[in-house]
Amino acid sequence: MKKDGSKPCQDVIRVYLTVVKRIIDGYRGHRKTICTSDVIRDYCAGFYSNRGIPASLSFNAQFGKLLKANSAFLGIKEVAANVSIKDDLGHPTSASKWEI
Known about the structure:
This protein is of the alpha+beta class. It has a domain at 31-99. The protein contains 4 helices and 3 strands. The protein has a 3-stranded antiparallel β-sheet. It is globular, with a radius of gyration of 15 Å. It starts with 16 loop residues before the first helix and ends with a strand. The mean pLDDT is 92.
């Protein structure tokens, strides 16, 4: 508890690597590469860009870092960064491309 009596902010979005791995494994045999956005779309039932949000606070950017940090476990290799894509509303953004 903070000095002012309020509780500390604990905004947390849990991401389960076993679920992410299952999503990625579902692409195997159908595709050779995927984008971070593909995995986010399947994990979150949509992909929307974090317009005007610094990468340090962006869920999408943090998700990409999670993929990179766990690439060996997930069986993926980053082959391109900052690939131009569009989110589900047609807004331009970028994502990494991964070989699976």
